[in-house]
Amino acid sequence: SDLGVSKIVNYRIENGFGNTSQGTIEIDTIKLEKNNHYHMVAELYNEKYLPTQDITEEVIAEKNEHLFLYNTIASSGAGVLSFVHGSADDNGMPFNQTIDVITLAKGTSLLQVNLMHEPSNKNGKTPDESGGETDVEAIFPVVIN
Known about the structure:
Layout: E1 11-13, E2 25-27, E3 30-32, E4 37-41, E5 45-46, E6 53-54, H1 56-61, E7 66-73, E8 81-84, E9 98-103, E10 107-117, H2 127-130, E11 133-144
Protein backbone atom coordinates (compact mmCIF):
# COMPACT_ATOMS: atom_id res chain seq x y z
CA SER A 1 0.00 0.00 0.00
CA ASP A 2 1.05 3.61 -0.32
CA LEU A 3 3.23 4.56 2.61
CA GLY A 4 1.49 6.90 4.99
CA VAL A 5 -2.00 6.14 3.67
CA SER A 6 -4.40 4.97 6.34
CA LYS A 7 -7.93 3.73 5.72
CA ILE A 8 -10.42 3.30 8.52
CA VAL A 9 -13.46 1.11 7.99
CA ASN A 10 -16.24 0.81 10.53
CA TYR A 11 -18.71 -1.90 11.43
CA ARG A 12 -21.05 -0.15 13.83
CA ILE A 13 -24.00 -1.81 15.60
CA GLU A 14 -26.21 0.69 17.41
CA ASN A 15 -27.15 -1.60 20.31
CA GLY A 16 -24.03 -3.77 20.31
CA PHE A 17 -23.05 -7.32 19.41
CA GLY A 18 -25.14 -10.11 20.87
CA ASN A 19 -28.11 -7.84 21.52
CA THR A 20 -31.43 -9.29 20.32
CA SER A 21 -32.40 -5.85 18.97
CA GLN A 22 -29.23 -4.56 17.33
CA GLY A 23 -30.77 -1.37 15.95
CA THR A 24 -29.09 0.41 13.05
CA ILE A 25 -26.06 -1.34 11.56
CA GLU A 26 -23.52 0.71 9.58
CA ILE A 27 -20.99 -1.23 7.50
CA ASP A 28 -18.25 0.43 5.45
CA THR A 29 -16.92 -1.11 2.25
CA ILE A 30 -13.23 -2.02 2.26
CA LYS A 31 -11.69 -0.63 -0.93
CA LEU A 32 -8.21 -1.89 -1.86
CA GLU A 33 -5.94 -1.98 -4.89
CA LYS A 34 -5.10 -5.24 -6.71
CA ASN A 35 -1.66 -6.85 -6.34
CA ASN A 36 -0.93 -4.97 -3.15
CA HIS A 37 0.13 -5.52 0.45
CA TYR A 38 -1.69 -3.92 3.40
CA HIS A 39 -1.25 -3.96 7.16
CA MET A 40 -4.56 -4.34 8.98
CA VAL A 41 -5.26 -3.52 12.62
CA ALA A 42 -8.49 -4.58 14.35
CA GLU A 43 -9.81 -2.24 17.05
CA LEU A 44 -12.96 -2.50 19.17
CA TYR A 45 -14.87 0.37 20.77
CA ASN A 46 -17.97 0.66 22.92
CA GLU A 47 -19.65 3.93 21.96
CA LYS A 48 -22.49 3.54 24.49
CA TYR A 49 -20.30 5.28 27.04
CA LEU A 50 -18.92 8.80 27.02
CA PRO A 51 -16.10 8.98 26.51
CA THR A 52 -16.09 6.02 24.11
CA GLN A 53 -14.48 2.93 25.66
CA ASP A 54 -11.55 1.43 23.75
CA ILE A 55 -12.00 -2.30 24.34
CA THR A 56 -8.98 -3.13 22.16
CA GLU A 57 -6.55 -2.81 25.08
CA GLU A 58 -8.62 -5.24 27.18
CA VAL A 59 -8.61 -7.81 24.36
CA ILE A 60 -4.83 -7.35 23.88
CA ALA A 61 -4.31 -7.83 27.63
CA GLU A 62 -6.24 -11.12 27.31
CA LYS A 63 -4.68 -12.12 23.98
CA ASN A 64 -3.84 -15.64 25.18
CA GLU A 65 -7.61 -16.25 25.45
CA HIS A 66 -8.57 -14.51 22.19
CA LEU A 67 -8.08 -15.01 18.46
CA PHE A 68 -9.00 -12.76 15.52
CA LEU A 69 -9.95 -14.68 12.38
CA TYR A 70 -10.16 -13.27 8.84
CA ASN A 71 -11.91 -15.15 6.04
CA THR A 72 -12.84 -14.15 2.53
CA ILE A 73 -16.28 -15.46 1.72
CA ALA A 74 -15.66 -17.02 -1.72
CA SER A 75 -12.44 -18.87 -1.10
CA SER A 76 -10.89 -18.38 -4.54
CA GLY A 77 -11.04 -16.10 -7.53
CA ALA A 78 -11.39 -12.37 -8.02
CA GLY A 79 -11.71 -10.23 -4.92
CA VAL A 80 -10.12 -12.76 -2.57
CA LEU A 81 -7.78 -11.60 0.19
CA SER A 82 -4.80 -13.54 1.52
CA PHE A 83 -3.70 -13.16 5.17
CA VAL A 84 -0.13 -13.58 6.44
CA HIS A 85 2.08 -12.65 9.39
CA GLY A 86 -0.52 -12.08 12.09
CA SER A 87 0.49 -10.92 15.56
CA ALA A 88 1.10 -13.57 18.23
CA ASP A 89 0.02 -14.05 21.83
CA ASP A 90 2.42 -14.46 24.78
CA ASN A 91 2.94 -18.14 23.89
CA GLY A 92 3.86 -17.44 20.26
CA MET A 93 0.45 -18.69 19.09
CA PRO A 94 -1.75 -16.75 16.64
CA PHE A 95 -3.68 -13.73 17.99
CA ASN A 96 -3.94 -11.69 14.73
CA GLN A 97 -5.04 -8.35 16.14
CA THR A 98 -2.66 -7.02 13.49
CA ILE A 99 -2.20 -8.93 10.24
CA ASP A 100 -0.85 -8.40 6.74
CA VAL A 101 -3.28 -8.63 3.82
CA ILE A 102 -2.35 -9.38 0.22
CA THR A 103 -4.70 -8.55 -2.65
CA LEU A 104 -4.58 -10.38 -5.96
CA ALA A 105 -7.10 -9.98 -8.78
CA LYS A 106 -9.73 -7.25 -9.15
CA GLY A 107 -13.17 -8.17 -7.92
CA THR A 108 -15.63 -8.09 -5.07
CA SER A 109 -16.04 -10.37 -2.09
CA LEU A 110 -16.92 -10.31 1.58
CA LEU A 111 -14.50 -10.26 4.50
CA GLN A 112 -15.66 -12.03 7.65
CA VAL A 113 -13.85 -10.99 10.83
CA ASN A 114 -14.39 -12.98 14.02
CA LEU A 115 -13.06 -12.42 17.51
CA MET A 116 -13.01 -15.80 19.22
CA HIS A 117 -12.98 -16.15 23.02
CA GLU A 118 -11.11 -19.10 24.55
CA PRO A 119 -10.47 -20.91 21.25
CA SER A 120 -9.51 -24.57 21.66
CA ASN A 121 -7.30 -24.41 18.54
CA LYS A 122 -5.40 -21.17 17.98
CA ASN A 123 -4.18 -22.47 14.61
CA GLY A 124 -7.76 -22.76 13.36
CA LYS A 125 -8.62 -20.60 10.36
CA THR A 126 -12.42 -20.55 10.81
CA PRO A 127 -14.68 -20.27 13.88
CA ASP A 128 -15.50 -24.00 13.60
CA GLU A 129 -11.81 -24.95 13.40
CA SER A 130 -10.72 -22.66 16.24
CA GLY A 131 -13.52 -23.50 18.65
CA GLY A 132 -14.46 -21.30 21.58
CA GLU A 133 -17.16 -18.64 21.55
CA THR A 134 -17.62 -15.86 19.01
CA ASP A 135 -17.35 -12.53 20.87
CA VAL A 136 -17.72 -10.50 17.67
CA GLU A 137 -18.52 -11.25 14.03
CA ALA A 138 -18.43 -8.57 11.34
CA ILE A 139 -18.86 -9.05 7.60
CA PHE A 140 -17.54 -6.29 5.33
CA PRO A 141 -18.06 -5.87 1.58
CA VAL A 142 -14.67 -5.79 -0.21
CA VAL A 143 -13.88 -4.14 -3.54
CA ILE A 144 -10.48 -4.70 -5.12
CA ASN A 145 -9.69 -2.37 -8.03
